Structure formats: structure tokens, C-alpha cells
Amino acid sequence: MPLTQDQITRFLRSVHPYDALPPDALPDLAASFDVWEVEKDFAVYDLGEKLAGLFIVYEGVIEVRDENDVVVSHLGLRNSFGERGLLRNGMAVTSARAEEHALLLVLPAAKFRALIAEHEPARRFFDRSRSARKASSNDLATSRVDSFMARTPVSVVPDTSVGDAARLMRGKGISSLCIMQGTALSGILTSGDLVGKVLAEARPLDTPVSDVMSPNPISLPPTAIGSDVLHVMMERGIGHVPIVEAGRLIGIVTQTDLTRVQAVSSAELVAEIANARTAQDMAKVTARIPQLLVQLVAGGNRHEIVTRLITDVADTATRRLLAIAEDELGPPPVPYLWLACGSQGRQEQTGVSDQDNCLILDDSATDDMRTGYFAKLAQIVSDGLDTIGYFYCPGDMMATNARWCQPLAVWRQYFKGWIDTPNPEAQMLASVMFDLRPIGGTFDLFADLQEDTLKAASANSIFVAHMTGNSLGHQPPLGLLRGLATIRSGEHKNQLDMKHNGVVPVVDLGRLYALQGQLAETNTRARLKAAQSAQVLSSSGAADLLDAYDLIAQTRLEHQARQITAGEKPDNFLSPAALSDFERSHLRDAFVVVKSLQSAIGHGKGMLG
């Protein structure tokens, strides 16, 4: 059916980013669109074909396949496609076919480029790299108030006596009370008011707080930043600022909160842990890691910076626990090396981390040393890590397991056996152990082992093939409904697993590229960049995968930060409903990129993307 310009204009108003354009820009833009009416099985474009423009689905369903002819997406109403090729060189990087009769809006390539150049909302929307999102320093002045305010402030009604108010403040360990008249904030009572207006004036304890409170206190919205609070406090000479949203009290910021915010930095936590005397002392420090995560994310820091800083805290804690163990047990009888694997090994820890570690001993170590001194050392360190919040590994991948506390010669045998006989257990163990990173001890024990293992592994095509197949076990959550497939049942029904179906598929790809190129890096992003430099991964493939990984990892971190801010325990399960259409569209595209790279290696086309 033909579409009028008015119909196209109304439709665009319901699609992001066009709904964010100036109203007077839409009619001219609508006039730029062509309308394609296509029948079932019509080839909209083929792989490598010059693209006519940007496509938007007005009606019907479009099937998109990657370069290996694997279906990566089914697109329906309001979904757009073709932008990846347009933003690269104008050639299609996928193929698209109509699954049924469809109406497509087509914005010619030249008009698409003009749209991006002229309108910031469009430029942001089609910037899959998030390059527009500049990292800023994580300081009080630029952090949003809702990332550090005290939530659910304690309140009382106006006729509460000052005696009861004082006892409540003492019991709660707080310095202020909000005075509420129904749902409205009518005043604030501080410890200074009790001293200056009650004690100093010898008022009776049954005096209502309404007589001594500061009425109609100045408040700020949750979108305010730290500098706003500082300026208000200095200008008004006050130490408490209520946070109000739509007339509703949602928090309060005190001078104590500001001091706490300024103290929560990775450097501060590292310094405190380095001087801690016990695991219990360290636990008080690591309890502030969630707040550190929130502040780093709120400050605009990129995911790899946030996870690196958080991992630095774990590394310092591990080395401090090793020192505590040596103080208790005496000097080690032979050189040793403590290594981490998993997220700590890759320097990718977030707000949810267990411990994965092992010990490599000098070959002069005896069985008595291994089961005696080093078993005790492992127990002290692993117990300490559990105490401070890095819970025991469910799979027992810890140095406390005798299997993972062995001389260097045994470790060489382990890796040789996994490479020579890549059964399912060997594939799983190799995947974990290829992420090993030295933390404390004699680092020389690992250098030759890593180099020799990478050389032997990359030369064994059967092992590489098995590792490739094993890595494909984690698939991006792509499905028919709006391009995202959620968990179907259980506790996390209708949610996305942003760990196992989000970041892990990229982690697996990075490990494969490192294996192929004999790359020593363990961090996923560093592996992808090193693979590009070593020409294991093409420049275009690396650019796409890095952008996709950044978006997925950043979305996961922001989800955890929101949970912590809301007083919840952070996890990896995200409801698509919590995302805007804009965010879902980007996330879907990122998963499509990962799926395409998986498809390439799964079809035996090597590692080049």
C-alpha cells in the first residue's frame, strides 16, 4: 500500500531517534524516505552488495543473516537495519530477506549521512562505539547526588517531642530528622538545633519539634551533582540537604556523606588494605567496594577502568593475606607463586565475584611441603578472601584443592595433558587456566610456562578446534521477539543473563584469539586489541567486536550500579523492560556482532573477522 508523507511523519515520531529531532525537521526527513513494498522471500540486499540506504520496518518481518548464512536476527515493526554497512564503507555486512509481505522505509545513503551530521540525537543513536560518552574524573564535584545520598531518611511528624526526637537520633546514630506534614517535607531538625534551641534555651523536653526545626529547608533534586550540594552548604551555612523528587522526599545528603564519598577511591581502599592487620579489618574496607563501583560508573568511567580498579583492590587484599600467612607460618621453604584466574585473572571484577586461584611451587618442593606449609598458606588466604567478600569458588578452583597446589613440573604435565587429550573436562579446565595471572610470589615461575603452553596449544589444531567448539557453548541472547531472548523459567524468568550470555561469549572469543596468536594478555579487551595488532583479527572485526563488548560490559555495570543504589544486592540479570527502545536496539546490535564472529569461527573460517 502507498504511504503518504503524513503517515511517514507520524510513524517517525514513534521511532527513536527520530522522535528526538526538532519537530520542524521531521516533515523534510519524511519526504526523503522511499517506500519499498516487498513480497515474501524478497532479497532486500545480499552480503557485500552496495546498500541503497538505511531500512526501517514499517510492516512485516525481515530475516537478517551473517556472512556464514546463519540467522542472527528477525526484525519487526520500528526496527532498523543496514546501518553497520553504511557506517563502514556502504557495503552490506549481512544479508536481509523478507519473511513475509513487508513495507520498508528506505532513507538513501546520502540522506542518512546528512542526518547523522546535522542532528546530535541521530549521531548518538547510531554511534555503536559509545565514543561520545567521554570518561570523566570520578570526584565529588561531578558525581550525581543519587549515587551517594542516604536513602529512606528518618522522619517524624511536627508534634513529636524534642525528647523523643533526640532519643530517636541517638538510637539511629544520625544527626538529623526530616519533619513531614503528610507526604510533604515541612522542616528539618538537626543535632545543632537541639543544642542551640533546646539545651541552650532550657526548653522542656516535651516541646514539639515544629517549634525548633528549620522550616521549609532548601532541597535539591536527585539529578543535582556534588558541587551543587557543596555550594548550597557553603552559601547557606548548613550541613544537611534533603533530596526531593516530584514533591516526594527520597533522600538526604549530610557533610558526613560528602566526606565518605571523597574517601571512597580505589587508591584509598588499596592503602587501607595494604596496612590492615587482619582479614576482619580488610572486610570493613572491601564493604565499600559497591559504593566505589557506583561512584566510578556515575562519574562516567569506562567499564575496563572500573573493573581494573576494583580488581586492584582484590589483588592488594590477596598479597596482604599472603604476607599475613607468612607472618604466621614463617618464611616459605621454597619459592612459590599465587595466581588468580577467572574475572580476577582477567582484571574484570565487578560487584559480584567469587575467588579462583592456584599455587605453583618450585620443583624442589616436597610432598610434605605441599601438604603442610603450602596447604596451610592456601587455607589462610582463601579463608581470608571469603571473609572479605570473595566467596569460595563453587567449582573448588582454589589453591586449597590439592590438585591446584602443585610444583611447576606437575603444572606443565597438566597443560600438556589438556592439549594432547582435549576431552570436555580438559576443555573446561584449559579455558579457566588460560586466564591465569600472577598475583604474589616469584613471578618467574610462570613466564616460561605461559610461553611454552601458548606455543604448544596454538600448534595443536585438534585442541584449537575443541576449544573453539567449547567457546560456542555460550550464545548471545538473540531471539524472535524484538531480537532478544530472555530466560524462559525460574527465578530469573524474562531476564537477560548479562554474564553467561553477555560478556562471557566475548571473553571466550578473546581467549581463542590469544591462543591463535600466542598472546600473553589475559584481559579481554587487551586480548582483542592485541589480536588486531597481530592480525589474528581483522581491523573491521576488531572494531565491531570492541564496540559490542564495550556496550555489553557497560550495560552490565550500569545495571549493577542501579541495583546497589537502590539498596539491592548486585547481580547479572537484567530485564529488557528496564531499558529504553534506544538501549535495547543498541544491545541487540551488539549481540548480533558477537553472534556473527562466533558464526565465523564455527564455520571453520579461522579467527579473522
UniProtKB/TrEMBL annotation:
Gene3D superfamilies assigned: CBS-domain, Jelly Rolls
Domain Cyclic nucleotide-binding: 17-124
Repeat keyword on record: yes
Keywords on record: CBS domain, Repeat
Species this protein is from: Shimia isoporae
Gene Ontology MF annotations: [protein-PII] uridylyltransferase activity
A Pfam cross-reference name: DUF294
Domain CBS: 149-207, 213-269
InterPro entries the record matches: CBS_dom (IPR000644), CBS_dom_sf (IPR046342), CBS_domain-containing (IPR051462), cNMP-bd_dom (IPR000595), cNMP-bd_dom_sf (IPR018490), DUF294_put_nucleoTrafse_sb-bd (IPR018821), GlnD_Uridyltrans_N (IPR005105), NT_sf (IPR043519)
Keyword Repeat: yes
The name this protein goes by in its record: CBS domain-containing protein
